[in-house]
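This part of the workshop introduces the protein records we will be handling. An example says more than a description, so a record of this kind follows:
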Amino acid sequence: MERKQKPSAAPWVPETRNLNRLREASKNCEGCGLYQNATRTVFGEGGRNARVILVGEQPGDEEDIQGRPFVGPAGKLLNRALEAAAVDRSELYVTNAVKHFKFEPRGKRRIHAKPNVAEISACRPWLEAEVAAVKPQLIVAMGSTAARSVMGRETRVMTERGHFLPHDRAESALITVHPSALLRIPEHDRREAEWGLFVRDLGMINEWLKKHPIG
């Protein structure tokens, strides 16, 4: 009896380190079933020589519409946190572990649904191609989905966050929470405390870069 082939984006990923060619190729990806309902592929953006790649989970509703990563509520919070941490977003390459928006329709709204392990694995070749093209020194994974994709294993975010970890495609990896997690905290005091920890984690990007100057 034949084994069912696992979904994978690999057949759609060209053998190139040109980000523009990768972005164009990603528009046609049918590596898993998420492409069927999403509006478009949302590829990463940023400089091809960025020293740091910031990885989130997946596009949200606004990202799916605009075709750009982190432009919705979580993206706005991320921008505020990066500014508070004195990290220039324009110097980062920003992307997601999963390139299509997974959602559940609820009336006229589209409610975020967490990607499963098969979908994360299927989309991983795109992230690997982005990392190979950019050649970052540091990869920052925000949230459990990004951490699983970046590290290639299940990762306990709250246990491993805030530590520089070894990585086979960069000098180090850093894990933190996803900004959307802060948006879901109802208590003001707890939300402010978590905000401070998130800014602290992002501030470690500059700490790392200062200790690893170019050349």
Notes: The chain has a mean pLDDT of 95. Residues 14-211 form a domain with the Uracil-DNA Glycosylase, subunit E fold (CATH 3.40.470.10). The CA atoms of residues 41 and 100 lie 5 Å apart. Helices lie at 19-26, 61-66, 73-84, 117-134, 144-151, 157-160, 179-183, 188-211.
